[in-house]
Design a protein that fits this description.
Structural class: alpha/beta
Subunit structure: Monomer.
Bound molecules: 5'-O-[hydroxy(phenylacetyl)phosphoryl]adenosine
Keywords: Ligase, Nucleotide-binding
Pathway: Aromatic compound metabolism
Oligomer: single chain
GO molecular function: nucleotide binding; phenylacetate-CoA ligase activity
Largest sheet: 9 strands, mixed
Number of domains: 2
Strand content: 15-25%
CATH class of the largest domain: Alpha Beta
CATH architecture of the largest domain: 3-Layer(aba) Sandwich
CATH topology of the largest domain: Rossmann fold
CATH superfamily of the largest domain: ANL, N-terminal domain
Helix content: 25-40%
Protein name: Phenylacetate--CoA ligase PaaK
Radius of gyration: 22 Å
Length: 430
């Protein structure tokens, strides 16, 4: 059971469709975007050189800096009169990346979001409470439109307003909640303070994404809220949410909607395309976008691809849960540390709550790493004993010892009510 038959198309049919659409996309950018024309000319390729989707690897990459350098609209491939929507993704520094949609682009977005929700098990008649932020962020409106397109009912609570959010979950008997994983945990905490057990409500599933999370964090959410947690992935530069999602049936990788978005996985250092199954940086080419086409966009997100047909019957490629980005890697005293390694340990210790932050400092020429973590509500031992335990556990997985582990009481670490959680604070260049 799928929303759109294309989800079970044969690989040959897909190949043909992708080839045709890539040719159109390359022609579109070559004709309409001077930057792309120069970029392709420099690489010595023209639209006529594309005979097959496999020729994609001869095209140059597009990077985040290229979007920034062309701020705000120099990569748009249509005149302003043809635009119907603008969104933006805020980076940590500088100007946001502005992205644009024509009417057809919005139609594609609505459809891939409806497909995604269907794959996640959402059906007509369901109440979907949408806790992603509305506004320039793509999460709110992306989910909103998809729910309506599918024919379910959307409750547009948006981010924040947590008390009302909990009231709505309870009073409307929402079946589905869409929000970031960190916000799920925050909701649970606040509900507990209000004397409400979220796992006793009607809520059946949460659709979490927009920020990385580890498997243990997902289990924590599933247990606390008494739900199935489905991973949804996307990025503004490509369309927003709805690039890929897990199917409820197998929950074994995220189906990426290849009729609209073509994925490659490359070595983040060399840019070389890696064989199926190897982990590397996800690169995506949009195959149907009109207003803001992207050729070989370096997402920065680390994953791997699996082309086997899924148990759910969908033939579309599956990508692994993104637990980190190529630039997440923290080099501490010359040693590689991924925040996800620390998260896995934190979530695995029962006495610890899943709220932590990592601070990096530089003292002289030496990097220091400090970890602050909250203890669980019901922990009644000493902070010192727990700190020793955490240090010992971290030693098993990290090649560098944290300089300080500090256990604090519940609620001490700032929560993120709207937007994406920030767990790593690098003060080394301050
Ligand atoms: O976060 C779109 C979105 C909204 C996805 C709601 C899912 C749900 P941006 O703000 O442009 O767009 O941020 C995109 O967020 O490159 C990843 O690094 C990260 N990201 C998105 N989804 C996931 C996920 C939206 N499921 C950036 N797991 C991406 C891990 C994710 N990281």
């Amino acid at each position: 059971m799928v929303y759109n038959e294309v989800e079970t198309a044969s690989r040959d049919e897909l190949h043909e469709l992708q080839t045709e659409r890539l040719q159109e996309t390359v022609e579109r950018v070559y004709e309409n975007v001077p930057w792309y024309r120069d970029h392709l000319d420099e690489a010595g390729v023209t639209p006529e050189d594309i005979d097959d989707i496999d020729d994609l690897s001869s095209l140059p990459f597009t990077r985040k800096e290229d979007i920034r350098d062309n701020y705000p609209d120099k990569l748009f491939a249509v005149p302003h009169e043809d635009l119907r929507r603008i969104h933006a993704s805020s980076g940590t520094t500088g100007k946001p990346k502005i992205v644009a949609y024509t009417e057809d682009d919005l139609g594609v977005w609505h459809e891939v979001m409806a497909r995604s929700l269907y794959a996640a098990g959402v059906r007509e008649g369901d109440m979907v409470q949408n806790g992603y932020g509305y506004g320039l962020f793509t999460g709110g409106l992306g989910f909103h439109d998809g729910v309506e397109e599918l024919g379910a009912c959307v409750i547009p609570t948006g981010g924040g307003n947590t008390t009302r959010q909990i009231d709505m979950l309870q009073d409307m008997g929402s079946d589905v909640l869409s929000c970031t994983p960190s916000y799920c945990l925050y909701l649970d905490e606040r509900a507990e303070d209000m004397g409400i057990d979220l796992s006793a409500l009607d809520l059946e599933r949460v659709i979490i994404g927009a920020e990385p999370f580890t498997d243990p964090m997902r289990e924590e959410i599933e247990e606390a809220l008494g739900v199935t947690a489905i991973d949804v992935y996307g990025l503004s530069e490509i369309i927003g949410p709805g690039v890929s999602i897990e199917c409820e049936h197998a929950q074994d990788g995220l189906h990426l909607w290849e009729d609209h978005f073509y994925p490659e996985v490359v070595d983040p250092e060399t840019g070389e395309v890696l064989p199926e199954g190897e982990e590397g940086e996800l690169v995506v080419t949009s195959l149907t976008k009109q207003a803001f086409p992207m050729i070989r966009y370096r997402t920065g997100d680390m994953t791997r691809l699996n082309y086997d047909t899924c148990d759910c019957g969908r033939t579309m490629v599956r990508m692994d849960n993104v637990t980190g980005r190529a630039d997440d890697l923290l080099i501490v005293r010359g040693v590689n540390v991924y925040p996800s390694q620390i998260e896995e340990v934190m979530v695995d210790i029962a006495e610890v709550a899943p709220h932590y932050r990592i601070d990096l400092y530089r003292e002289g020429n030496l990097d220091t790493l400090e970890l602050t973590v909250e203890h669980a509500h019901d922990y009644d031992g000493t902070h010192e004993a727990l700190e020793d335990d955490i240090e010992a556990r971290l030693k098993e997985v990290l090649d560098v010892k944290p300089d300080e582990v500090e256990v604090v009481g519940p609620g001490v670490i700032d929560r993120t009510e709207v937007g994406k959680v920030k767990r790593v604070y690098d003060h080394r260049d301050e």
